[in-house]
Specification:
Blueprint: H1 2-24, H2 40-47, E1 53-61, E2 64-72, E3 78-86, H3 96-100, E4 107-108, E5 117-124, E6 131-141, E7 144-152, H4 157-166
Length: 171
């Protein structure tokens, strides 16, 4: 009797796990992209940046969609931007060669399942008293390319790169 209950319990548990996995692997569609996918608390916990304002943008094209969000600090000195672009020309998941090929100026994030790449940014901002620095990370998941940029006068790319790599992946 105990064995029968154990077997039934195991089968029910496996069935629930299978259902959860099926839900987790639902195909991404352009309609499922969320312009501002992170909460302020999530950004603070992962990146160490306290954002208090966000601005969303969205563009829809036939068969495609481009959504983005800029999160900013109260001082305006630091921002986090997230952009997701649905590309209907991509065929499903990223191939191994696409994951290993790096764009000019980018470095592959070692062992990343989405083939993420990052680069440091340093640019003279028009109204800033010093150079604006930051990190840009990009990756492709299914048919969506996601770009995350953290920039500001106080951003240290060496410190920020591993933090950006730990940010939850979207979509």
């Amino acid at each position: 009797m105990k064995r029968r209950i154990t077997v039934i319990g195991t089968l029910v548990g496996l069935g629930l796990l299978g259902a959860a996995a099926a839900r987790a692997e639902e195909p991404v569609t352009p309609e499922k992209l969320v312009p501002c996918p992170f909460t302020a608390e999530e950004i603070a916990a992962t990146l160490g940046i306290d954002v208090d304002n966000r601005q969303a943008a969205e563009m829809i094209f036939p068969g495609s969609r481009d959504v983005g969000c800029t999160y900013a600090t109260a001082s305006g000195n630091t921002s986090v931007s997230v952009r997701q672009t649905w590309d209907p020309s991509q065929k499903g998941t990223t191939s191994a060669s696409q994951r290993t090929a790096t764009a000019a100026g980018f470095t592959a994030v070692a062992g990343d399942p989405d083939g993420a790449q990052w680069r440091s940014i340093e640019a003279k901002a028009e109204h800033a008293t010093g150079p604006e620095r930051g990190v840009e990370m990009r990756y492709r998941r299914d048919r969506v390319e996601t770009v995350v940029v953290v920039r500001g006068r106080t951003v240290d790319p060496v410190v920020m790169e591993p933090r950006v790599a730990k940010l939850r992946r979207v979509p």
